[in-house]
Automatic annotation (TrEMBL):
The active site is at K121 (n6-amp-lysine intermediate). The gene is ligA. It is an enzyme of class 6 (ligase). DNA ligase that catalyzes the formation of phosphodiester linkages between 5'-phosphoryl and 3'-hydroxyl groups in double-stranded DNA using NAD as a coenzyme and as the energy source for the reaction. It is essential for DNA replication and repair of damaged DNA. SMART domains: BRCT, LIGANc. NCBIfam families: dnlj, PRK07956.1. This is DNA ligase. Pfam families: BRCT, DNA_ligase_aden, HHH_2, HHH_5, OB_DNA_ligase. GO terms for molecular function: DNA ligase (NAD+) activity; metal ion binding.
Length: 686
DNA sequence: ATCCCTCGAGTTCA
DNA sequence: CTCGAGGGAT
């Protein structure tokens, strides 16, 4: 970007940020915009650092969000409520350390008093509580840091806020902490909302903020908020003798101890750290706990424990120098789409793939995401060059959620499906398979090398020949060792070992692995054939119906040309039936099957499913199973006559939840499906 | 014709 | 995990 483009980008960023802020604060839109807002603000900050001449003191990004509402009484804070600077990586923590060490006198860095303190950063609403003579007299929101709203009545409904302090207490005290809702209470609340047809809350913070802004404290009371204290502000008034201490407070960690003694709830997960390595260890430790932590959190607050050092470092702008918030990676970020590429699948389907500037999201760096098909691109309105919002579905798969059209420059390009296959140059058609309305585009060339490669990969994966990955397959193909999947079974140790970068041992392993996997049940064999619409389940249905491959082939009378041949099989309708009929009528396919058998593939007969004790039961597996692998669990269920399905519905009998279950766990709760853990599952097996 | 549920197929990163 | 599409119930 040149300078004038940067300036335009800055202006647009400001506008977009303002729009999101408005959506959040005024229209009460769900705060899915939150991370996006942060992401854009960061970009703006970075650009302004590079080009300080575009800095605009009046621009909105320099003001603290959240003006006091008119409905509530405004309160001037006795001590300004600060916000924290963020660190988004360990590197930024080290930068911070470098900065503060420069500012501290050398003698302070010696000895044992230089130490950090780490605590959980709750994702709630920061509030300030004033106590006089041990009694809670006033509570306020942060507001703009100087002036907040008096929400005393609402705060009094929170059980974990003591109305009276435990002795000994000082004459006057200001406590800072976070008002928030537990995840469990959010779920309960949302359950009720669903039942009553009301919209669900996106997160605990929205509820906390919304509840405390209710004018009627009874509404706030219903929400069952919680409060965690984390700071004592006016420690000059909190004199040692008033607190029953021998000497004055010297560290931040000591404040936590005092808060506990005064009767506040203070989070137990916290640590004193001698150096940043220990800080990072704590950050990593909590990252694992975080998903199961009962409250929403967005990071770890790291502070210099020694209060004198805090004083030396002081405050710059609206944030203290002695404290920093380490933020865990956001779940939604923004990035720029550099290009859209095309992938060709086993069926010849063309799948567009968005390539974007690598960004860190939910713990990993992503650089591409599938766009599924043309319809999806049109729905999103995506063009090459656009700034997009990216998230990770189920914390794993990157997904383009939204296009920020407000940031367009006019240079964005629309993406078109190519007329010719990018690999084999044959014509691309929007093929209607059986149904009239297919959205996908296809390369129909049966010899398309991309298609064939995908097929080989599918074949070895169904045969579970793990030693042969995509790269190796490709190499064997390029070397001329294999022309089709059947050739795999003729590979020799000598062939493989003759290639550079393959040793005797790995060649041996590959050949042995192939030998071991030659025997295959009929159902898997059918699946491996890659018949359109015939996957794992359908293949099983067919295998059980016929029993042997001969019967399947014989059943297809080559003389007749109708395709309702398989309709009497359970779960097979016109589309699959036609696909099967077409497949077994193709001479090439029949020859391929013969070749496989000639090359040593042994097809085991399918047996009728025994009616086990799981007959008629559908299982869904979620989370990480620790007592057995997913594969094993699946096999056990199948062998007892049950079924394993991929998604939860009201037909699901049991959801087996391991550690850190995903969205399936939630939908099970929503649908009232029985959730069991691994132990209960094992008990059922006996 | 229209629902809901499953299945198939393609997908990402560590 | 997502989206499209097939199968079956209504």
């Amino acid at each position: 970007m040149d300078k004038s483009e940067t300036q335009k980008r800055i202006i647009k960023l400001r506008r977009e940020i303002a729009r999101l802020r408005n959506a959040y604060h005024v229209e009460n839109a769900p705060n899915i915009t939150d991370d996006v807002y942060d992401s854009l603000t960061r970009e703006l900050k970075a650009l302004l650092e590079e080009y300080p001449e575009f800095y605009d003191a009046n621009a909105r990004e320099h003001r603290v969000a959240g003006k006091p509402l008119d409905k509530f009484v405004k309160v001037k804070h006795q001590n300004r409520m600060l916000s924290l600077n963020d660190a988004f990586s360990y590197e930024e923590l080290y930068d911070w350390e470098k900065r503060i060490k420069k500012l501290l006198p050398a003698e302070k860095l010696q000895g044992s008093s230089f130490r950090y303190f780490c605590e959980v950063k709750f994702d709630g609403l920061a509030v300030s509580l004033i106590y006089k003579k041990g009694k809670f007299v006033q509570g306020a929101t942060r507001g703009d840091g100087f002036i907040g709203e008096d929400i005393t009545q609402n705060l009094k409904t929170i059980n974990s806020i003591p109305l009276k302090l435990k002795k000994p207490y000082p004459l006057s005290l200001e406590v800072r902490g976070e008002a928030l809702l537990s995840k469990a209470n959010l779920d309960k609340l949302n359950k009720i909302n669903i039942r009553e047809g009301k919209p669900v809350f996106a997160n605990t913070r929205n509820v906390a903020a919304g509840s405390l802004r209710q004018l009627d404290p009874r509404l706030a009371a219903e929400r069952k908020l919680d409060f965690f204290a984390y700071d004592i502000v006016n420690r000059r008034e909190a004199r040692p003798n008033a607190l029953g201490l021998a000497s004055r407070l010297e560290t931040h960690s000591a404040k936590h101890e005092i808060l506990r003694k005064l009767g506040f709830k203070v989070e137990k997960i916290e640590v004193k750290a001698e150096n940043l390595e220990e800080v990072i260890a704590f950050i990593k430790k909590f990252e694992k706990i975080r998903p199961g932590f009962p409250y929403g959190t967005d990071g770890i607050v790291v502070s210099l424990d020694d209060l004198k050092m805090q004083e030396i470092l002081g405050v710059v702008g609206k944030a203290p120098r002695f404290m920093v918030a380490f933020k865990y990676p956001a779940e939604r970020v923004t990035t720029m789409v550099k290009n859209v590429l095309i992938n060709i699948g086993r069926t010849g389907v063309l799948t567009p793939l968005a390539i974007f500037e690598p960004v860190s999201v939910a713990g990993s760096t992503v650089s591409k995401a599938t766009l599924h098909n043309m319809d999806q691109i049109e729905r999103l309105g995506l063009r090459i060059g656009d700034t997009v919002v990216v998230e990770k579905a189920g914390d794993v798969i990157p997904k383009v959620v939204e296009v920020l059209t407000g940031l367009r420059t006019g240079k964005e390009k629309k993406f078109k499906i190519p007329a010719l296959c990018p690999v084999c140059k044959s014509k691309i058609v929007k093929k209607q398979l059986i149904n009239q309305s297919s959205v996908a585009y296809f390369c129909l060339n049966p010899k398309c090398s991309a298609k064939n490669e995908r097929y080989l990969e599918h074949f070895v994966s169904v045969f579970e020949i793990y030693e042969l990955g995509p790269k190796i397959l490709r190499r064997f193909k390029d070397e001329g060792f294999i022309t089709d999947a059947a050739d795999i079974f003729l590979l020799t140790k000598e062939d493989i070992a003759s290639l550079p970068r393959f040793g005797e041992k790995s060649a041996e392993n590959i050949v042995q692995e192939i030998e071991n996997k030659k025997k295959i049940p009929l159902s898997r064999f059918l699946w491996a054939l890659g018949i359109l619409h015939v996957g794992e389940e359908t293949a099983r249905d067919i295998a059980i119906h016929f029993g042997t491959l001969e019967k399947i082939i014989l059943s297809t009378n080559p003389g007749k040309n109708f395709s309702n041949f398989y309709l009497d099989i359970e779960n097979i309708g016109p589309a699959v039936s036609k696909s099967l009929f077409d497949f077994f009528h193709d001479k090439n396919n029949l020859n391929f099957i013969k070749k496989l058998e000639k090359n040593g593939v042994i097809i085991e007969k399918a047996e009728k499913k025994k009616a086990g004790k799981f007959a008629g039961f559908n299982f869904v597996l979620t989370g990480t199973l620790s007592l057995m692998s997913r594969e094993v669990a699946k096999e056990k269920i199948l062998s007892l006559g049950g079924k394993v399905v991929g998604s939860v519905s009201k037909n699901t009998s049991y959801v087996v939840a391991g550690a850190l279950p995903g969205s399936k766990f939630k939908s099970a709760q929503k649908l009232g499906v029985k959730v069991i853990d691994e132990k209960e599952f094992l008990n059922m097996l006996d």
